[in-house]
Amino acid sequence: MTVRVGVLGATGAVGQRLIQLLEPHPDFEIAALTASDSSAGHVYRDVAKWRVDTPIPTEIAEMTVHATTPDAVPDDVDLLFSSLPSSVGAEVEPPFCEAGYVVSSNSSNSRMAADVPLVIPEVNAEHLDLLEVQRDERGWDGALVKNPNCSTITFVPTLAALAAADFTLEEVHVSTLQAVSGAGYDGVTSMEIIDNAIPHIGSEEEKLETESRKLLGTFDGAELTHDGVEVAASCNRIPTLDGHLENVWVEAEEELTPEDAADAMREFSPLDLPSSPDPLIHVFEDPSRPQPRLDRNLGDGMAIAAGGLRESTFGLQYNCLAHNTIRGAAGASVLNGELLLENGYL
Fold it and tell me: Rounded to an integer, what distance in angstroms lies between the CA atom of residue 53 and that of residue 245?
């Protein structure tokens, strides 16, 4: 049975990626698009400055955009994908949940709330059952699930692969080289980024350091306990279009060789969901890979790439990469939607 879905914030960069991924999806049918009050009531093609690398779907182009309020969205929509700015999401997502809608959100608001599951399905699918706690505590008929920050998604699956191979992670250091698309179309001007690198992205380090520990934590059916690994992050913006490249150093309680790590990452299982790639983590032998331009589209943009595994004085060192607007944003929300459907929350 096809699930009718809507996109909140449909005219923005991530909203457009969501439409690109949802329009051909085997289980989801786009039935509603919402945007700001200035766009509401207009035909989508007239208010969306379409910048995605495939043509705007014909049927979507002719849809009328709704206001981003529960009473403006049809009652027969079962699932909403939210790509709203976090300040807007914090205000409007709870009323949608109260009204009975299930929301799979890319927005950063509420990611660290104790009763909101922060999910990468291949890493911590069991955390989705935190929705039962959420519904009991908030009295919602709907539900809210979050995917993490685009840079968090890039390196946490590699850590989860090591943990699944019974390595006890003690300390992780990560330095990110983040593409300009992560800041949105208007986020970084050409005069700022061309011939340059910016060694600061506001609040990004904190997101990597806190979200990673929540994702790697354990859920006992009533409460989520964050993992004890210590994570330190440094985030940098570089002049690539798409694809976040990250340098990672890991110290484990046990001896962790590059060969052990490569095996663990290669063997880390994908899920039987339409958007989960196989393999989830592609490990390169070539130390010059992964590279954003060459490797961001592995697994239709949903795979994680890793390479450059070697021993260092600070433990295991390696690089990893993911497509930040697909795996790191829109694709992550779609995958969480698939998990919601698989687990009977729709």
Answer: 21
